[in-house]
Amino acid sequence: MAEKYELRRFRAVGKDSADYAQGTAWLRGVGIGFYDEPRKDEFVDKIMAMYRVDNREMTGVYQPDGVAAHSLSADVPVATFATLRKDLNIGYGRQLEAQLVTAVTVRGTHRRQGLLRRMMTEDLAAAKADGVALAALTASEASIYGRFGYGVATFERSIKVDTGPRFRLRHEPVGSVEIADRKVLLDLAPEVFARVQRAMPGSISRQEAYRLRSSGTLGRDGSEDEAIRCALHYDAAGSVDGYVSYKFAGWDAKPYTMEIVDLVAATDAAYLELWQFLGSIDLVERISWQDAPVDDPLTWALEDPRCVESSDQRDMLWLRILDPLRVLGARRYSADGTLVLAVRDSLGFAAGTFALAVSGGVATVTPAPEAEPELSLDVADLGSIYLGAVCPVTLTAAGRITEHAPGAALTARLMFAVERSPHCLTHF
Ligand SMILES: CC(=O)SCCNC(=O)CCNC(=O)[C@H](O)C(C)(C)COP(=O)(O)OP(=O)(O)OC[C@H]1O[C@@H](n2cnc3c(N)ncnc32)[C@H](O)[C@@H]1OP(=O)(O)O
């Protein structure tokens, strides 16, 4: 069924190009899929400009035989899909290029005809042929992407922090925090984030939209957001090593709340001192943050950890391994040991048996089709344990991983651990 549709891939072009309208019609298709309000032309132009910076590839699926009378024009795709390539921190500062998948929609009238399956399998095959070893996405629903070999690899949560009298942080400041003009983030945000990218397992380098949103240059409706404020953290030597951009929720919202738009800290001290600043804002009783880490130093630094109200803990980054030899070989491991992994992959990209031998943290990975596996797992589960955020022992208890050699899951847990809890601050 899905084969009869025409599938086109293209990249964003400048406004003066004859192909510009193809991209804007594609964006309209995405808006239909996600029930967005139609965007003004100016906003669309800004989005297209960002897509150019990120070199995003758009895929559109089009009606093969024209469209029915009164239907949307044939230029608007019935299904959309987009990719961009960014680096993923895979632990100990190592980076691996990932195919990021986003903007997946299939129009309600065309669902369950295999359009997603076609777009996804063709894209994964093309990425693998292009030498990309893994793909990643964030999922609207947790039941969609496992069948394509994606596994949950990091988590996040929403928090509300009571900044009333209970809020006291056990931390002696080593730097300082200053309010700044929000526009300084256009330059500073990417610089600070680049340091986080080098240090934080699970981090993904950011697309252009982030510095524009954090600085209030691109608000939710596409215009400047004058309500965004910004504070910078300076280390003892006076260099900026962290920032927070934030917005007051208004005098009608009780308790009076400051919403974090973006909080990025390159050091532990910067993180805690930005929180000290947030906790000290007069008249504000609560700070809310949608992108908080699950394993959060804030909770442990507070004299009263119950100041933090946590909700909606959820899957964040999903990984799809395409080339196990490269992906396993690229990592540094926390413990020495050997493991024979039998990997299943219904799409065939990563199936096989692989011997992983680690000495001094350095891996040697070889195909081992004749070896007795110690662990058998689906490629989605390999994606889950890859960044050290999901425990192989738990996946064994859940019946997802089969342990053939006693203790192999624990060995995997120790080997795949990373230097600090993985967290991804980049949504795409
Ligand atoms: C990375 C991102 O962009 S996440 C955003 C995903 N998009 C959305 O949530 C927007 C609203 N939903 C949609 O646009 C569509 O329903 C999609 C994209 C989720 C699915 O597209 P479809 O073309 O209908 O999927 P397709 O027909 O290829 O189905 C492939 C398989 O996934 C299954 N599937 C599809 N959607 C869902 C779902 N929401 N939940 C569970 N299973 C699903 C199908 O049953 C099918 O299973 P099978 O191959 O084992 O038979």
TrEMBL record:
Acetyl-CoA binds at residues 104-106, 112-117, 140-141. Gene3D superfamilies: 3.40.630.30, SCP2 sterol-binding domain (3.30.1050.10). Residues 203-321 form the Eis-like acetyltransferase domain. Keywords: Acyltransferase, Transferase. Residues 326-424 form the Enhanced intracellular survival protein domain. NCBIfam families: PRK01346.1-6 (NF002369). PANTHER family: N-ACETYLTRANSFERASE EIS (PTHR37817:SF1). Homohexamer; trimer of dimers. HAMAP family: Eis. This is GNAT family N-acetyltransferase.
